[in-house]
Amino acid sequence: MQAKRDVRIGKDLVAASAVPLVLAILDEGDSYGYAILKRIDELSGGEMEWTDGMLYPLLHRLDRLGYVEASWDSPQGGRRRRYYRITSTGRTALSDKRRQWEVVSDALRNAWHSFQLVAPAPLSGTGEG
Amino acid sequence: MQSAMDPSIESQIREWKSYLLRRRTIHDVDVDELEDHLRTQILELGAAGLSGSESFLIAVKRIGAVNELSREFARERSSRLWKQLVLAGDGARERSGSEFAGLLITICIAIAAALAFKLPAAFGINPFDSGSSGSSNADAQASFYLRNASLLTLPFLIGFLAWQRNLPIRVIALLAAAFIAAAIVINAFPFDKGGDTEALAAIHLPIVLWLVAGVAYLGGAWRADAPRMDFVRFTGEWFIYYTLIALGGGVLCALTLGVFEAIGVDVEPIISSWVLPCGAVGAVVVVAWLVEAKQSVIENMAPVLTSVFTPLFALMLVTAILGMALTGSFIDPERDVLILFDLLLVLVLGLVLYSISARDSDAKPTLMDGVQLVLVVSALVIDVLALAAILSRITEFGFTPNRTAGLGLNVVLLANLVWSAWLLSAFLRRRRPFSDLELWQTAYIPVYAAWAVIVVAVFPPLFAFD
Questions:
Q1: Residue partners of B84: CB distance under 8 A and separation at least 6
Q2: Which residue of B has its CA nearest to A78?
Q3: CB of A79 within 8 Å of any CB in chain B?
Q4: Which of B36, B62, B69 is closest, CB to CB, to A81?
Q5: β pairing state of A31-32 and A81-86
Q6: How many CB atoms lie within 10 A of CB B94?
Q7: Which chain A residue has the Cα nearest residue B81?
Q8: C-alpha angle with apex B56: B60 to B21, nearest 5 degrees?
Q9: Which of B158, B281, B263 has the alpha carbon at shortest distance from B220?
């Protein structure tokens, strides 16, 4: 993934967290691309910035992996829109990812704890995450 | 939602769309989806008070540069999941300097393997010299190599893998013990000269030792199922690379012979007693290094090969079954014919196993999985027919080493094929995930090892070394 301008959270981190985030949002209920991005914005307090378009290749990948199912919904007189629904495989993957992320965030929390103990100069609490 | 927008915005959207459509990697449906996104965004920005063209510009910018988007779609459409899996001690990711050092060490191990293979010549065992063939001594020498070829070669492959994987001493000792036990069994048994049990043991020993090498490949972690698939993949890739190198080596040797014959020098003794055996043995290690280091090259070849040969083999087997049904002729229980069918079944199973290992296990059922089911089911039919032929032979003439080995092999394959066919059809009906089939195949690998061990170690005494 190419580095891009004006992102608050690094591209790598966004890419790594994208799959569990999207799956978790779809676990709340079926959704479509634009609404998923809105929800990510809400959940991260606007701190996680995506290039909107990049969501779609990702959704594609999730579809190919069988984590989500896509279907077109065309309401009367409206534009057709592609909806995504999480599958049971997707839920399994989500709980796996969740466990992995919990390990990572626990490890980080512990690391920061000792970091603050050791660091002589009190850095204003940037470690909160 | 209604798509009534300012005509100038509409034309801008159309332009943007046609620009996207020119990218081959972004398909029509993707463009439709992105257009929906763009329109929703424009409407929302418009509702927040921005003008139409302002909204359009911001929305387009937020979707992102078309180049990057199409690259991302291309990546998604071409990349395979297991490419991203990194094996423990993966040589491919080292720096080029250490890669060169790795190559040097590999070549040293390969040369050592070649020399070790020729070591028996120092004790007068050299069946590769064409001059001495025919005598009974030459037969004994040939039988020594027949039995010991894999014992002389595979320790070096294991050495290479042990070096790559940093195997703990405990595991190395275990592997060495397995080799020593095999060496004792195969050399201490008083085989009858030219007997069937000797030939059977010589055929099955490399299988046992190859699976022992698999333990080294897996860094000693052979109990886990998932890494075993990596070894299956390694085996398939090793086989393909080895075949390619053997073909190239054969052409080289033939040309060398021709060239030196033209200038009146007979190099045939050198080629047959040194170049061919040393090359064949050294290649075992070099090919293993190639598979490890140049993994990405073969990764692109494996799916192509399996998708070419799976339908062809399926077609061949179905035609054979139809032929048998139409002519009414059963499998002739001749020894050669049965061996041919066993070989065919083993090859089919290898193909199935390899295509399973090359497949993305999370992908949905495809046409190729249907073809695979046809292949497995027709192999099953052939297996049952061969089994019936062997059984009829056995009831008529009694047990012999060859028939018993054939019977056992067919039963081992039958069990695998039946359950594979069931799992594959359940997968096609979306009742079971593909990973069940993977799990079944990897869990079955020890059965092959056990059967091969039985043929090597139990058959000879059972049939009085006949």
A1: none
A2: B1
A3: yes
A4: B36
A5: antiparallel
A6: 14
A7: A65
A8: 50
A9: B158
CB B203 within 8 A of CB B146: no
Count CB pairs under 8 A between chains A and B: 77
d(CA B64, CA B87): 35
Q: Give the three-class secondary structure for B463.
A: coil
Q: Long-range contacts: B443-448, Cβ < 8 Å, 24+? A: B443/B225, B444/B416, B445/B211, B445/B214, B445/B228, B445/B232, B447/B412, B447/B415, B447/B416, B448/B207, B448/B211, B448/B412
Neighboring chain A residues of B63 at a CB cutoff of 8 Å:
51-53
Q: Which residue has the tokens 């179905």?
A: B318
Query: Strand (E) positions, B133-178?
Result: none
**Quick check: A79 and B76 CB within 8 A?**
no
The model's pTM is: 0.61
Cα distances (Å, whole numbers) of residue B175 to B58, B112, B152, B213, B238: 65, 19, 14, 8, 21
Which are the contacts of B39, defined by CB distance < 8 A and separation ≥ 6? Answer: A79, B1, B3, B5, B13
Q: pLDDT for B275-334, tens place per residue?
A: 888 999 999 998 998 887 766 565 667 778 888 889 999 999 999 889 888 887 766 667
Q: B residues 45-64 near A, CB within 8 Å?
A: 62-64
Q: Is the pLDDT of residue B419 over 80?
A: yes
On chain B, the residues whose CB falls within 8 A of the CB of A82 are 29, 32-33, 36
Percent of chain B predicted with pLDDT > 90: 21
Cβ–Cβ below 8 Å for A65 and B75:
no
- The answer to whether the beta carbons of residues B311 and B132 sit under 8 Å apart is no
- pLDDT score at A2: 42
Higher pLDDT, B389 or A1: B389
Average pLDDT for chain B: 82
CA atoms within 13 A on the CB side of B352: 31
pLDDT bracket for residue B386 (50, 70, 90): confident
Residue B263: count of CB within 10 angstroms of its CB = 6
Distance CA B404, CA A11 (A): 62
Subunit contact B36:A52, Cβ cutoff 8 A? no
Partners of A82 in beta bridges: A72
Better-scored residue on pLDDT, A45 or B448: B448
Tell me if B33 and A33 make a contact (CB, 8 A cut-off): yes
